Amino acid sequence: MAASRTALALLLFAPLAFFAAFFLAPMAVVAISSVTTDGDTLTFAHYARILLDEYHWDVLWVTFRIALMTTLICMLVGFPLAWYLVRIVRWRTWRRICVILVIVPLFTSNIVRSFGWMVLLGRTGLVNQALMTLGLTERPIRFLGTETGILIGLVYILVPFVVLAVGNALATIDNSYEEASADLGVGPARTFWFVTLPLCLPGAVSGAIIVFALAVSAYVTPALLSGGQITVFSMLIFQQYSSVFDFHYGAALSITLLVLTLVLVGIAGRIGDAGRRAA
Amino acid sequence: MQPLLSLEAVSKHFAGHQALRDVELGVSAGEFVALLGPSGCGKTTLLRCIAGFLIPESGRIRIEGEDITAAPPYRRPLNTVFQSYALFPHMSVADNVAYGPRRAGASRREAQGRAREALALVGLGEMGARLPRALSGGQQQRVALARAIVNRPKLLLLDEPLSALDLKLRRRMQIELKHIQEKLGIAFIFVTHDQEEAMAMADRIVVMHAGRIEQVGAPADIYRAPATRFVAEFVGEPNLIPATPAGPGRARLAFAGLELAVPEGTSCAMVRPEDVVLVEGAAAPDLATATGVVEDVVAIGSVTTVFVRCGDLVLKVARLGMSGADLEPGATVAVGLRPAGLHFIAG
Questions:
Q1: In this predicted complex, what is the ipTM?
Q2: What is the CA radius of gyration of chain B?
C-alpha cells in the first residue's frame, strides 16, 4: 500500500515537475522580468511604453492581420485537401503518398523552406517566370518584402496542421449520419452544410487555433520573406533580446503578444462552441 | 393491384462475393415484411439497395411502378431506421425529428409541430429539448423511429432496429412497433436475424440465405411448411427424420418403420417438437410410436424439451410448462408422432 502510494505520488510528480521546469519556470522568468528593472524594482513602465506607442499598435495590427489571413487561407486550402484525402481517395497507396507529402515538409527546417520561397518568389524566380510565360503578368510581381510573400510562406508551412486536424475530424464522422440525412430527403450540398460541417467543426477550430498561434508568433518566415520592409511583433521581441539587450522590455513585448493571442484564441474557442450548439 | 415496392431480379456483388442473386419480391401498401436470415445472407445489402445507399448491378427496383433503381437516396419516397440510430449528435431530439420537414421547406414552426406530433406518437413527447446522447438506448431507438416517420412515408425500412436493446425492452418494442405500423398504415420492411422477432411482428417473412430468397410466406406457413432444410433449421426447432424411397411415391422414415406416401424427391420429413409426444399407457391409434431413451432434459420454465434417442435419431419433444422436467436421463420412454404433423422436404 505504502509502495503504491509512493508510486502514485511519483507518477503525479513527474509530469508536474516536467511541466514546472519547462513551461512554468521560463514563463515566470519572462513575466517577472517584464515588470522589473535592472535594479529589481517593480515597474510597469515597459508596458506603458508599449501600449502608449502607436508604432507598437501598428506592428500588432500587421502581425494579427497576417496571422488571421494565414489562418483563413490555410482553412480554405486545408479543408478541401483534407476532404480529398479522407473522402475521395480510395486507393490506399495514393492516400499514403499524399499524407507523406503533407507531413514531410514538417521535418525540414523553417529556415530552409523560407529560403526556398525566397528563391521561388524573387524577381526572376520560378513563380514570376511562370506567370510571365503564361502571360498572366507583363512585369514581375513583387512578392518579397510584401505581406503577400509572407502569407505564401506561412500558409505553405502551416497548412499541414489544418489538413491533419480536419482530416482526423472527417475520418471519425460516422458514415451513417450523412446517410440518415440523405435518407430524409436532403441532397449532398445541404447535408454537408447541416451535418458534416458542424460535426467536424471542433477539429477545424482546433486546427485554426494551432495555425493562428504559430502564425502570430512566427519569426523566421516573416523575417526572411519581409526583406526588411515589414515588421511583425516577433521581430521586435527578437531585436530587444539579441541586439538591444533590453531583456525587460523584450519580456514585456512577449507577454503583450501572449496575452493578446490568448484573448483571440479564447474568443475563437467560444465561437466554436456556440457554433456547435447552434447548428 | 400494383405492389408498392417491387424488386425484379436484383443482383449485387462485392469484390468477388455475390451478395444478392436475382432477388424477386413484391411488397404491398401497409404490409409488414420481415427479411430474415443469418448474418451475411444479404438482407442488409438488400435493404441498402432499396434505400439507395447501394446500386445493384442488375435488376430493377420500382416503387409504385416508378423505376428508382439508380435514384439517389434523397430522391426516394421512403425512410430508414438505422441499426446505429444515426441520430445527429449536434442537434436536440426535436431538431433531429424536425430535420426532414425543415429541410424540405417547412417553416420552423410547422416542422417543430410535426416533430412534436411524431415524438408523442412514440411516447417521447417531453424529450424534445434533450440531446440524443442524454437518452437511453430504447429512447434513442424511439427518436430514430419518430424521425423516420415524421414525413409519413409509404414505406419504412428498419435495419435490425431492436438488436441493441435488452430482451425485455425488445419484446415490448416489438409489440409497440407493430401497433405504430398498424396505426399509420405504413409498409414496413424489417431486417432481423431473430426468427421469433420476425414471427411476432411480420405479416410475411422473407427467409434469405447466401444472397437468395429461400422462402416467402406468412409466419405460420413458414413455420409449418418450410420449403427447404435451411428454412426448417433457421426458423424454429425442427426434428428432421431421414426418408428413404420405398417404391413409387412412397418412402420409409427412420422412425418406427413408418412408410408413407410422399411427394416426389422427398429426402426427409420434418416434425416440430410440439407435434411429438411422450406416450404414457395405451397409445392413441393415430400415433406412430417407438421406444427411446431419454438423453437430456432442458426445462426453461414455459417449455420443457426432452431429447429422446430412438436408434440413430435424436428427437426433440416439447412439453408445456415443467411437465417432464423430472425425467431422468437414461429412462426408457415411448415416443409418438402424428403423421399429420409431418412435412416433407426435398433435396
A1: 0.85
A2: 24
A199 to chain B: closest CA residue: B90
Number of domains observed in the structure of chain A: 1
Which CATH number belongs to the domain containing residue A273 in this structure? 1.10.3720.10
C-alpha cell at A34: 517584464
Q: Is the pTM of this model over 0.90?
A: no
Instruction: Collect all residues of chain A within an 8 Å Cβ-Cβ radius of residue B73.
Output: 179, 182-183
Helix or strand holding residue B43 (H, E): helix B43-51
Nearest-neighbour CA in chain A from B244: distance (Å): 52
Instruction: Verify that B215 and B302 share a domain, yes or no.
Output: no
Same domain, B86 and B158: yes
What distance lies between CA B184 and its chain's CA centroid?
21
Phi, psi for residue B279 in degrees, rounded to 5: -95, 125
CB-closest option in A180, A191, A279 to B90: A279
A37 inside domain: no
Same domain membership, residue B153 and residue B30? yes
**Domain assignment of residue A24, yes or no:** no
Domain total of chain B: 2
Q: What is the pLDDT along chain A (279 residues), one digit of tens a residue?
A: 556 888 888 888 888 898 888 888 988 888 888 888 877 788 888 888 888 888 888 988 999 999 999 999 999 999 999 999 988 888 889 988 988 888 887 888 888 888 888 888 888 888 888 888 888 888 888 888 888 899 999 999 899 999 999 999 999 898 899 999 999 999 999 999 999 999 998 889 889 999 999 999 888 888 888 877 888 888 888 988 888 888 888 888 999 899 988 998 888 778 767 665 554
Q: Structural domain of residue B116, as residue ranges?
A: 5-233
Tell me the chain A residues in contact with residue B90 when contact means C-beta distances shorter than 8 Å: 198-199, 276, 279
The span from the CA of A152 to the CA of B108, in Å, is 44
- β-strand partners of B309: B293, B314
| Domain end among B187, B214, B233 | B233
Report d(CA A221, CA A65) in Å as an integer: 15
Q: What is the DSSP track for B55-103?
A: --SEEEEEETTEE-TT--GGGSSEEEE-TT----TTS-HHHHHHHHHHH
Please state, as a whole number, how many other Cβ atoms lie within 10 Å of the Cβ of residue B21. 16
| B48 and B161 belong to one structural domain | yes
